[in-house]
């Protein structure tokens, strides 16, 4: 399950690494959403795997720290992108 979580995080990093943060927060959010959707279209079984992973982590908590490990990692990845985009937009507005 940890390997599945790591694979999804790498996938998130793959489609979020080239998000143009210089175009602002709205565009960054759109780009991440489009990348996520594209990844799901390319691998439709991925959404099922993600749901299974979430259910497994929930059923096995607290014995498995998977949920406590992966969701902050997702948040950090997306937070870095969105905060960089927001800062860029704020600099452009001033």
Describe the structure.
There is one protein chain. The protein is mainly α. 81% of the residues lie in helices and 0% in strands. α1 crosses α2, α1 packs parallel to α4 and α2 crosses α4. It is elongated, with a radius of gyration of 15 Å. The N and C termini lie far apart (46 Å). The mean pLDDT is 82.
- Low-confidence sequence ranges: none
Beta-strand percentage range: under 5%
Question: What separation lies between the terminal Cα atoms?
Answer: 46 Å
The number of E-state strands comes to: 0
Classify the helix fraction into a percent range: over 70%
Query: Any idea what the radius of gyration is?
Result: 15 Å
The largest sheet, given as strand count, sense and whether it forms a barrel, is: none
Average pLDDT: 82
Helix/strand class: mainly alpha
SSE diagram, text form:
Layout: H1 2-16, H2 25-42, H3 45-59, H4 66-93
Helix pairs in contact: 1-2, 1-4, 2-4
